[in-house]
Amino acid sequence: MEYHKLGDKPCSSHLFFAILLVFVFIASFADAAIHFHQFVIEAKPVKRLCRTHSTITVNGQFPGPTLEVRDGDTLVITAINRARYNVTLHWHGVRQLRNPWADGPEYVTQCPIQPGRSYTYRFTIQNQEGTLWWHAHSRWLRATVYGALIIYPGMGRPYPFLMPKKEIPILLGEWWDRNPMDVLRLALFTGAAPNVSDAFTINGQPGDLYRCSSKETAVFPVEAGETILLRIINSALNQELFFGLANHKLTVVAVDASYTKPFTTNVIMIAPGQTTDVLITADQQPARYYMAAHAYNTANAPFDNTTTTAILEYKSAPCSAKKGQPLKPIFPQLPGFNDTATATAFTAQLRSPYKADVPMKIDESLLFTVGLGLINCTNPNSPRCQGPNGTRFAASINNVSFVFPRRNSLMQAYYQGQPGIFTTDFPPVPPIQFDYTGNVSRGLWQPVKATKLFKLRYRSQVQIVFQDTSIVTVEDHPMHLHGYEFYVIGSGFGNFNPRTDPAKFNLIDPPRRNTIGTPPGGWVAIRFEADNPGIWLLHCHIDTHLPWGLAMAFLVENGVGELQTVQPPPLDLPQC
């Protein structure tokens, strides 16, 4: 994908510059485009690891189509469901201002699109630019139903960094050598953890280190000396990943479609749901270099310990002496699977490039414990109780294991005034205080199942501290908040101390994100202003944990007037 040429030289005349600004402002509306797409969701044969599977795809593509727009553009995407499963689509990181109907999580903002039906998502990009992505938000369909969503700056606005010669989306994925929906179905029946994936992928291909895969390994040709923007997306279902490129420095310039102060690193850690933009310069000896990704594993649990690769190939790279074969690529040095020190050092370097507009007068200060749990069984020997010691796995926030409704979506029930679908008594702090990261009493391991929401007044200023727990195991939980971006103001290990830890908060230039991980056995603090009315899901982006209940939702009330009120639902909104 070639870069888009953006930006013009500034004028010297102040008057002319002021007039130009007026025209640019007017032109920004005139230049805003409407992009129409049709996404046909259907099973197609896809061969990986020597076997062909009937795989759910979009328009026959795996990964799905890349969407390219500019800030201010509108997308009109008709999703046609020709698969045998219910499906919804989520536009990960898009603010969806006043428009929860286009957000996509099933049974939260819409009922799913049933087989044979369709639904048109209509939304406008407002004051966002960078790398986002889209994916199915129905059970485990997003294992193969996903793609990049690239938002270029508005016309006449350049990037705030060196213009790259080309741009390459890098979608990191996870592949099962079986139907992912069957993997999930078995786990939900037995109550045990699902089988781990059989491969990781880069742009849908496992790479040279897997069986029957080397012929399709992704190869990216580059000219010596050119600068390339890699738009890296972790679209894996369940795994944080380390990513590196042999012999090349990575200059981080953005995360989650928000620019950062540039910094250089050899490796990035990227959690499911997150995006990271890096600049690389082809300044090494002309050759072939592997980019590679493998697991960053923080839980005491099985994980996929394989490594996916793609190849950065200098066009001037020499061939080997053997019959003109290309040279064997050089391999990068990746951290160990459990290298929390490297992961922590990476995230600690992220900063906004300017003084951030961090909420300072906090109206709602929330402490959310996030972690796993176990449901006790009356018959531990049952085939439905195959978790640890005859239990079933669960997960919760503040001991509430979230139950998705089935009779109606939360947003439709709220808009229609339908009672009995949810309550608004989600606890703002853990119901019982305990040593969250210590040796937790087994009496605290079983959460309560419920559909509880937390109500926020429009424009209230919110602080959330996500506190990991050691129940079952500590773990990095990548928490994603729909409909919002937030500032990550602090993190640490152990239990959050409300008396001493706030003094360490970064309220000057914290990074802005839509997905943030809890340090394993630690905490992370975020702030945002509740300026987007509607019901918005907050959940762990490890998809094993979502059906176990590691989620909740905010009900943000309307403000005053039309511009602070949820817009009416579209006529074709699916019904349950």
Automatic annotation (TrEMBL):
Cofactor descriptive note: Binds 4 Cu cations per monomer.
Coiled coil: none
Catalysed reactions listed for this entry: 4 hydroquinone + O2 = 4 benzosemiquinone + 2 H2O
SUPFAM superfamilies listed in its UniProt record: Cupredoxins (SSF49503)
Entry keywords, A to Z: Apoplast, Copper, Glycoprotein, Lignin degradation, Metal-binding, Oxidoreductase, Repeat, Secreted
The protein's enzyme class: oxidoreductase
MF annotations from Gene Ontology: copper ion binding; hydroquinone:oxygen oxidoreductase activity
Locations listed in the record: Secreted, Extracellular space, Apoplast
Domain Plastocyanin-like positions: 42-153, 167-316, 425-558
One GO CC term on file: apoplast
Membrane spanning stretches: none
GO biological process: lignin catabolic process
Primary localization class, coarse: secreted
InterPro entries xref list: Cu-oxidase-like_N, Cu-oxidase_2nd, Cu-oxidase_C, Cu-oxidase_fam, Cu_oxidase_CS, Cu_oxidase_Cu_BS, Cupredoxin, CuRO_1_LCC
EC nos: 1.10.3.2
Necessary cofactors: Cu cation
Family assignment from sequence similarity: Belongs to the multicopper oxidase family.
PANTHER family the record matches: LACCASE-13, MULTI-COPPER OXIDASE
Functional summary from the UniProt entry: Lignin degradation and detoxification of lignin-derived products.
Entry protein name: Laccase
